[in-house]
Design goal:
Layout lengths: L10 H5 L3 H34 L14 H18 L4 H29 L4 H55 L4 H58 L12 H5 L5 H22 L1 H22 L2 H4 L10 H5 L1 H16 L5 H19 L8 H17 L6 H31 L9 H23 L3 H35 L9 H5 L1 H27 L3 H13 L1 E4 L2 E4 H29 L9 H24 L4 H18 L1 H16 L7 E4 L2 E8 L3 E6 L4 E5 H6 L3 E2 L7 E9 L5 H13 L11 E7 L4 E9 L5 H18 L10 E6 L5 E7 L1
Length: 836
């Protein structure tokens, strides 16, 4: 162990102390530490014990001096209990709605049983499942409120019984100690009033418990109905290839009567009205919240349409926002109805038909500019076809009629899709693709519709109605979702393009400088979001979401175990996504800071760079911790591993850690900043980057030198720009003896003032240095802010000074040597140097 004794004379003696003395000193230090810990425990321990001790047993007798104070506390408690016993609006609502909910559950159970017996369509199953989920959610919320109230009543009842016992003992003790009559009267008053509150609490608790039991029973019935639908949904896909109806050419189908059509129609109408009424009554507040931005968006678009400079805006790729203003109502409807289906993924059938009808009109109006005029009529045909399918679903309670309508619908759809498909194929073969930019993509989409409708018709006609319904329903709804998302994506992107060019976003430098990049990233984000929503909706309408999600979940959660450590693909993906998200968040925050925050705030040089990099390290560190947690590693075990790893770092990676800590010191202390001109040993250049381990310096010759951060902290470094970018230039000059010094100084001063890059403050300094061997020595000292080109400034000053001296008739001296020959007595000549 080395000792530094430069500042302490006794340091050498300390280093030579015997080992026994060191051990004795350590023992004394440890004894002092243990004594200090004992004092802290003795001082803090009673206080902690007092803090953790219970507030007191309410059932013990109250001292007579505290009777008045405790009586006031008991009175306040009784007033709180009286407020608690007031009718609770939530409980009253549950009590009033419970009989109606019981009737609805009875009706829903009967409806579920009938539909499941008749092999319902996938849309009917989704509607049943959603209605049961919604009813179960309402009952579960009510049950939770009742449980909380019952628990509160039970706690208050137990507390009141202990208080009552305490006052009884207090009265006995007060009478035994001959307390004043007023005190005894106060105690008797409390004892006469507490039992009444206790009785009311018991009655309210009993009523809440009875209501809780009733709600729990109805919740169990909801769970039963939900389990039935869920079980049928699970078996639906497995039975989709089994024949569940007679072929249309069979004798039984031809002889089936239509006697029950009227009754079933009335039943369907009644159920639809009930579902619609329930939905509007329960969701009126949220529907109004959706209506307000819809109306506001219409008003905003109508006002913006009156401004011609906004109507003709376009993004960097030429996409015009006139699509938004041309049809403001349709634009607002597209956004509002897409928001509706995001809030209510599975509304009741009647609500879905109504909303889908309105949305269909809005989507067609918004999508019309995307198609050629000759193709618009097919767009209307697709809308009418989908509308017919929506209304066909209302006849789900009439299986025979619904089947006939379904087969007719699929036949008409297959014929229409086939006609469009073959006409487009013929146009493509004739080379007309250049006339219609979307012809090729539209042909592929129509071809998929043709295949789906044909399979659905053939399967339904042969008696495989589950397969037919599933194929037709999935094909049509997938196409409709694709159309709606395409229109919604373009409308939303057009709104984004508009918002990027109006206040307040157009005031941001990050938007003005990188608008094309922002628009490109936004368009890509909307595209992939639309693809993801379309894929999810397609899986749902084809009843593949449950098995696909189960398969994906199984693949992601299957663990590879090694001892007590388990790792799965999901953990690895979560780790990678978390780290990637940390990098994205760091880049986004630093981008905003550098573009919009730092230019608006006056900060010291180098401070923005330090803040950005420190923030980058902090975000990455937090992201790494979250990623490790997402990986499934126990952080307590990770701390042990980290401790062991830290020991290894101390021995094997100490240089890396030294450079890392030195980099943090450079960022915090900022003795060196990006852009500074440094001289480090024989390396001279400008700082380009301060990294986590090293700093990059670009030399004046153009080379990149990587300097470890520890070198910049520990070694001697010359910084030419600690506070500014000024550089002093010294230009020495010598003139011949006999020149006037004042004239030379004036020439130097004039040359300095005549150069544009010489600073006026500090003022140039022409100095007479002294007398040389062959010249009078002068020096011109000037300051310049051209740090990077100071050598060029020095060269220009030298050229200008040479010309000025010549013009003034002042000769620049050059070294002179005089040699004299002297005759020696021996007849030889010896040279003698006599001076310059």
């Amino acid at each position: 162990m080395a000792c530094d004794t430069a500042d302490e004379p006794s340091g050498d003696a300390v280093c030579r102390r015997p080992v026994s003395g060191v051990i004795k000193t350590m023992r004394r230090s440890l004894s002092g530490i243990f004594a200090l810990c004992a004092l802290v425990i003795l001082a803090v321990g009673p206080a902690m014990a007092q803090d953790k001790a219970p507030a007191g047993d309410l059932s013990v007798s109250i001292p007579i001096p505290e009777i008045a104070t405790r009586a006031e506390e008991t009175g306040a408690l009784l007033r709180n209990i009286d407020a608690l016993l007031a009718p609770d609006p939530d409980v009253e609502t549950i009590r009033q709605r419970l009989p109606e909910l019981s009737v609805q559950i009875d009706s829903r159970l009967d409806e579920t049983a009938q539909k499941l017996e008749g092999r319902p369509s996938i849309e009917s199953l989704e509607e049943l499942f959603t209605s049961w989920q919604k009813m179960r959610g309402g009952l579960a919320g009510g049950l939770e409120k009742l449980t909380l109230r019952a628990t509160r009543l039970e706690e208050e009842l137990d507390r009141l019984s202990r208080i009552l016992e305490s006052w009884k003992r207090t009265r006995t003790d007060a009478r035994a100690s001959k307390a004043p009559a007023a005190v005894l009267e106060r105690v008797d008053g409390l004892l006469s009033g507490i039992p009444g509150f206790e009785k009311r609490l018991r009655e309210e608790r009993s009523a809440v418990l009875v209501l809780q039991d009733q709600v729990a029973r109805q919740l169990a019935r909801c769970e039963d109905g939900l389990d039935r639908v869920a079980s049928f949904r699970q078996s639906y896909v497995g039975q989709i290839f089994s024949r569940d109806a007679k072929p249309i050419w069979s004798k039984e189908m031809q002889e089936q009567a239509l006697t029950d059509i009227a009754a079933n129609a009335r039943e369907s109408y009644r159920a639809s009205v009930i579902h619609l009424r329930e939905f509007v009554r329960e969701e009126l507040g949220r529907l109004l919240l959706l209506l307000v931005p819809f109306i506001g968006l219409i008003v905003l678009l109508r006002r913006a349409r009156r401004r011609s400079h906004l109507r003709h805006l376009a993004d960097e790729r030429g996409f015009s926002v006139d699509l938004v203003f041309a049809r403001p109502v349709a634009t607002a409807l597209v956004i509002a109805l897409l928001s509706f289906f995001l809030v209510y993924p599975h509304p009741p059938r009647a609500v879905s038909v109504f909303v889908s009808t309105v949305a269909l009109a809005a989507v067609i109006r918004s999508a019309m500019p995307l198609f050629e005029p000759a193709q618009v009529r097919w767009l209307y045909a697709l809308g009418a076809f989908f509308l017919a399918d929506q209304f066909r679903g209302l006849f789900a309670v009439m299986p025979w009629l619904e089947r006939q309508l379904f087969l007719l619908e699929m036949l008409v759809g297959a014929c229409a899709a086939g006609r469009v498909f073959f006409r487009n194929r013929a146009a493509l073969r004739r080379g007309e693709q250049g006339k219609t930019g979307t012809l090729n993509g539209l042909t592929v989409a129509i071809g998929l519709l043709l295949v789906g409708f044909t399979i659905a018709f053939l399967a339904g006609a042969a008696g495989y109605m589950s397969l037919g319904r599933q194929t037709g329903y999935g094909t049509l709804n997938s196409a409709y979702v694709a159309l709606a998302l395409s229109a919604g994506k373009r409308v939303t992107y057009a709104l984004v393009v508009l918002l990027l060019r109006v206040r307040p976003l157009n005031r941001l430098q990050s938007i003005n400088r990188h608008r094309a990049l922002v628009e490109q990233r936004t368009s890509g984000l909307f595209h992939w979001l639309a693809v993801a929503l379309w894929a999810r909706a397609t899986l749902i309408v084809f009843s593949l979401s449950t098995p696909v999600l189960a398969a994906v979940r199984s693949a992601l959660t299957s663990e590879f175990g090694w001892g007590s450590f388990g790792l799965s693909l999901g953990h690895v993906l979560a780790f990678a996504v978390t780290v990637w998200a940390a990098f994205l968040v760091s880049r986004f925050i630093r981008f905003l800071l550098e573009e919009d925050i730092y230019p608006r705030v006056r900060m010291a040089s180098g401070l923005p760079y330090a803040i950005s990099h420190l923030l980058h390290y902090v975000i990455l560190f937090l992201g790494f911790l979250l990623a490790v947690s997402a990986l499934g590693m126990d952080l307590t075990k990770f701390t042990i591993i980290g401790g062991a790893f830290g020991v290894g770092i101390g021995f094997g990676l100490q240089n890396v850690v030294n450079n890392f800590v030195s980099g943090l010191i450079l960022l915090f202390e900022r003795p060196i900043r990006v852009g500074d001109a440094l001289q480090i040993g024989d390396v001279s250049g400008q700082v380009r980057r301060i990294g986590i381990r090293s700093t990059s310096v670009r030399t004046w010759e153009g080379a990149e030198v990587i300097v470890p951060n520890a070198t910049l902290v520990a070694d001697r470094v010359t910084n030419w720009t600690p506070t500014d970018r000024w550089r002093r230039i010294s230009l020495p000059v010598g003139v011949t003896y006999g020149s006037d010094p004042e004239s030379v100084l004036e020439v130097l001063r004039a040359v300095a003032r005549g150069h544009a890059q010489v600073l006026a403050e500090p003022a140039p300094q022409p100095l007479f240095i002294g007398f040389g061997e062959s010249a009078l020595l002068f020096e011109l000292r000037v300051w310049t802010d051209g740090l990077l080109d100071w050598q060029q400034v020095r060269s220009e000053l030298a050229v200008a000074l040479n010309a000025a001296l010549k013009a003034a008739g002042i000769v620049i001296a050059s070294p002179v040597r005089h040699v004299l020959l002297r005759q020696e007595s021996g007849g030889t000549a010896a040279p003698e140097r006599t001076g310059p």
